[in-house]
Amino acid sequence: MRLTPGAGRDLDLGRVDLFDLDLYATGDPHRVWDVMRAKAPLHHQVLPDGREFWSVTRYEDVCRVLGDHREFTSERGTVCTHLGTDDVAAGTLLTSTDPPRHTQVRRAIGAVLTARAVAPWEDRIRRAIVRFLEPALDGTPFDLAEQALLLPAIVTGPLLGIPERDWAELVQLTAMVTAPSDPHFQHGSTAATLAIAHHELVTYVTEWVRRRRAGGEEDGSLLDHLMTLSAGGAPLSDEEIALDGYSILLGANVTTPHTVSGTVQALMERPEQFEKAQADPGLVANLVEEGLRWTSAACNFMRYAVDDVHIGGGTVPAGGAVVAWIGSANRDETRFPDPHLFDITRSGAKRQVAFGYGPHFCIGAPLARLTLRVFFEELLQRFGSLEPAGPPQHLRSYFIAGLTHLPVLAQKRLTP
User: Fold this and answer.
1) What distance in Å separates the CA atoms of residue 269 and residue 262, rounded to the nearest whole number?
2) Exposure of 135 by Cβ count < 10 A (0-12 exposed, 13-18 middle, 19+ buried)?
């Protein structure tokens, strides 16, 4: 997805197809969302196959849809690939479950993912990131986006209890789930790609749990934690463990690499911002927040209206699917003045909703923030300059805003 919009132009929203993958791979969706926020804050679209959905694009409306499960339920599916077919894991998979069950399970899992809980992992994460960055300093082009797909596995694989031999396969499978139409990850049809990836990931976690139980071994990893926790006074079922383990794998592997590559692209396009961050290491935390806002890697989530709901100047009928566009909310000019300006000194950047909002706010956000902070600390300390070494290539997905290729040429920083 193009993150710096082109020149404004008139748009006929009646002809806009928000499920057109070309819009995200080669088009300019931010200009579409600009017009939607101004002229159609509640937008209705009917697909050629008869499926329909409503879109909200303003910050306030996106937060309302994601924040109130009594008006907008998660228990029919939360991603656009489920539109028209209810999620079979709804009510069991954490991301497709409403409170109170969601709250019970989330609280139990989240106890080991708080900012305080993940802080002791910083040294291990820093060593992993230093090793990751070393090949970029050999004076030859380095495809940051392609290599960054492995970064979360390198960083969190040991924390999850996933052996290194499995990292590349799991990264491929999680990419297949979130971008099943991208030629880099597609196996057969889009539907076949999704089916294969879902099956393989759930099977992986199921077999991992079976072997762990048979061996009677624990290593204190996040997946071990799933096997031992209780929610609502009872242990998680094997199905919940498998599905929530699958969800953790997705969350760990999917958005962080695209936040990294999209933020680096923004810094290359704006050398003055790169220099400003190098001159003041205290800006790194805000750079991370601006990078999250700017990239909005998970660019939408879906909910279903429980009853008729008046929102955005219109009405969503009971049972209607509502897509909340994160990427648009994070460029809402009423919350982020001059929203298409990438500014690492931006006041209020932390109000971004890249991690979602409300009950389903990303459970791994503290770990993601820690990883991103360490990444940019090390990059700014080690790299004197960054230049593009070839054209970027954007992910073909309407769910994940990302890059598949971003060739960069880095120069080593000569002075600390």
Assistant:
1) 11
2) exposed
Strand ranges inside 294-375, DSSP E: 300-305, 309-311, 314-316, 321-325
Measuring CA to CA, which residue among 45, 41, 38, 36 is closest to residue 60? Answer: 41
Instruction: Please return the burial class of 190, using the count of CB atoms within 10 Å of its CB with bins 0-12, 13-18 and 19+.
Output: middle
What are the backbone dihedrals phi and psi of residue 184, each rounded to the nearest 5 degrees, phi first?
A: -70, -25
H or E, element range at 252: helix 238-269
DSSP secondary structure letters along 126-162: HHHHHHHHGGGGSSS-EEHHHHHTTHHHHHHHHHHT-
| Identity at 29, one-letter amino acid code | P
- For 184, counting Cβ atoms within 10 Å of its Cβ (0-12 exposed, 13-18 middle, 19+ buried), the class is middle
Q: Which domains does the chain have, with CATH numbers?
A: 13-412 (1.10.630.10)
| pLDDT tens-place values along the chain, 416 residues long | 889 888 766 788 989 999 999 999 999 999 999 999 999 999 999 999 999 999 999 999 999 999 999 999 999 999 998 898 898 888 888 999 999 999 999 998 888 899 999 999 999 999 999 999 999 998 899 999 999 999 988 888 888 888 889 989 988 998 898 888 999 898 889 889 989 998 998 898 888 888 877 776 666 788 888 888 888 888 888 888 888 888 888 887 788 999 999 999 999 999 999 999 999 999 999 999 999 999 999 999 999 999 999 999 999 999 999 999 999 999 999 999 999 999 999 999 999 999 999 999 999 999 999 999 999 999 999 999 999 999 999 999 999 999 999 999 999 998 65
Please give the Cα distance from 161 to 257 (Å, whole number): 20
